[in-house]
Every structure is written in C-alpha cells, then in structure tokens.
Amino acid sequence: MWLVFFKELKELLRDRKTLFFMIALPILIFPLIIGGVVYFTDKAVKEAQSETLDYAIVGSQFAPDLAEKLNALSDLNLVVVPINDNHQQLIAADTVDFIIEIPANYSEHILQSGQATINVYLNDARINKVVARVEGIIKEQTNVLRQTAFESLHLNSDQGAALITPIVLNKIDTANQRESLGEKLGGMIPYMIFILCLQGAMFPAGDLGAGEKERGTLETLLISPIERYKLVLGKFFTVAAAGITTALITVASMALWGTLLSKGMAVEFVVTFMSSIGALDFVLIFLMLIPVVAIFASILLSLSIYAKSYKEAQSYMGTLVILVIIPIIFALLPNAELKGGWAWVPLTNVALAIKELVKGTMDYYQLFAIFGSTALIAGALIAFCIHWFNKEKVLFR
C-alpha cells in the first residue's frame, strides 16, 4: 500500500497543474478575493460620489429656495427638459440621470398645506448616489419648515421632537463586533475552503483512475502481487494527501493574511474581523477538514475508476462541485444552527462549525457529533471505493 502511495505521490509532485491547485491557488485566493472586493468596491463608490450628474426639476416654481440650493451643488448639472415628456424615457435615453418632481402643495406653511411628496425619478440599478446627494438638501429644507411650524405652535425643540416621534425604539445589540461580522461573513469561508479542497483533490484523482486507463498502465498495476484493497488505499491516500495539503495551505493562508491585515493592510472592519480569529480556531478548522477531504477523495476516486476516460471523469467531477455547494447553502439557512440534527449532517455540520468558530460562539461539545458523523461517512465511502475497484466490469468499461 505504501509503495503505491509513494509511487503515486512522486508522480503527483511532477505535475505542475496539480501543484498550482494544491499550493498556489489557496495562497492567492484570499488576498485576491478580500483585497479585490475591497479595492474595486471602494473605487466604484468613490467614482459614483465624484461623478457630475445631470438632473431636471419639474415644479421648481413651487419651491424656488429648494431649486436654488440644488442648482448651487457643484456635482449636479441642471438640464432643461419639456415638462410633458415621459420621465422614464428621458432617464433611459441618458438625457438626464434623475428628475425631481415637486408637487403643487409644497409650501412653507406645512400646517396649512399638509405633507408634500417630492418624487425622484432615477435608475436605481446604477451606483450613482442620487438619493444621498439630494437627501441632504431635502433634510435641511425639512428642518426649516419643521422649525417654522413649531414656532407657530409655540413649541420648543424638545416638545417638537416629542410631537413628531412620541416613542423611540432604541435597539441595543448584545452581540460583539466579531459575532456580528462572523454572522455576515462566516458563511463565505466554508464555501471557499470546500471548493479549494475539492479542486486540490480533483486533478490527482482523475489521473490515478481514468488517467491510468487511458495510458494503459492500470492492467500492469493489477497483475502485480499487491492486493486490490492496498492498491485502492495507496491511491486514496495520495488523493487525500493532495486535498489535505490544500486544506492546510488554505487555513494557513487565512491565518497569514489575517495577521497581515491586523497590522493595518486593509480597511478597519476586515482588520477587526480577521484578527479576532484565534490560533485554536484555525487548528480546529483544519482538523475538521481532514474527514471532509477523505469524503471528497473517496468519491472522486470512485468516479475516476468508473469513468472510461480522463475527460469523462472531469465531467463527473464538475457535477460534484455543484453538489458540494448544496450542504453549504443549508448552513446559510436562517434556522440552521450547530445543534440537534444539524450537528450530524455531513459537510453542513462542518460549514456551520466553521461559521461558529469565526463568530466565536462555538459549542465545543458538538465536535463529537461533527467528527463522528463525518468520519463514519468517509469510512463508508472508502469501503465503497474498494468494492468498486474489485469489480472487473467497472475497471474495464
């Protein structure tokens, strides 16, 4: 068995493509994703905030002060359009970026005219910060009208505030910053880790089964005096070693970039989030990935043994990527928590556990259920892989 393992491992280390998916990709993926998202999001928002927008105002005669303040803004350019034109068509044709429509009942005497509704027509699918630019002027004008109404009623500012909002609901969040950010971002980490581990094991698995069929070396291997189950285990450990290496490098990459980010190489919330994850959390994440990789390796090797060619094996394995996403989606459900039945669901329980570790709310007693169920499924799949390899009709399809 170990002779087969070392032989396959030596051939594996000669394949540059496999080494890239095992080593280079896990190291690069986290800085590319985190840094790329932060950089391009920040760049897009800044460009949207600094862009000069064309606008039109309908009913400006009802609110001359408001129209004058909007016209004074340097990042807005007033465009005159026919009053009766269709607003949506003007925006769709890029004649203007947005249109403000002031109602006829707009007045400085709001107690007499009542509430006025100002319509803003815009294409909200774009990042343009239209509402943010206009909202400041509207709020300023609203405060002036409100203060005028208070003075006419002989109310001070506190009485006026109580009149507008008699009861204030104050939300006090008991979750710390790590738990809050972990709930929002923790679900992404299992997705990236699982896919990377699967990718790391996929290429060697395809080569050790279907690849040997294509090269005609499988028959030579079968006539050797080594027992069949030892051949399978040797190949399995090779595929698992590739997946575990990917898992180790992935978790180490998370820890490394978390340390770098904590030294001020990213935005504040990313620094706080990454630096709050402890060394023990990273170790537990890696240990939980070992039986997960065993599941991936046994399934991938079974598919590779069954396939007639390397190309056919790759098509089967591509479908497996989609199936791996499903347990992660279950972990993102609102009612999915690492307790009860969820702690025994393979892959989903590991995804939930990684999320809990990131949040800092892990119930460590659930590790018994996680390791137990995942190891049991992995063992059953390894046994199936051995059974599959012993079938001549499968080997020589």
From TrEMBL:
Signal peptide: none annotated. The keyword Transmembrane applies. It is found in: Membrane. It is a multi-pass membrane protein. Keywords: Membrane, Transmembrane, Transmembrane helix. InterPro entries: ABC2_TM. Residues 17-385 form the ABC-2 type transporter transmembrane domain. Its main location: membrane. The chain crosses the membrane at residues 20-40, 236-257, 277-303, 315-333, 364-389. The keyword tRNA-binding does not apply. It comes from the Bacteria. This is ABC-2 type transporter transmembrane domain-containing protein.
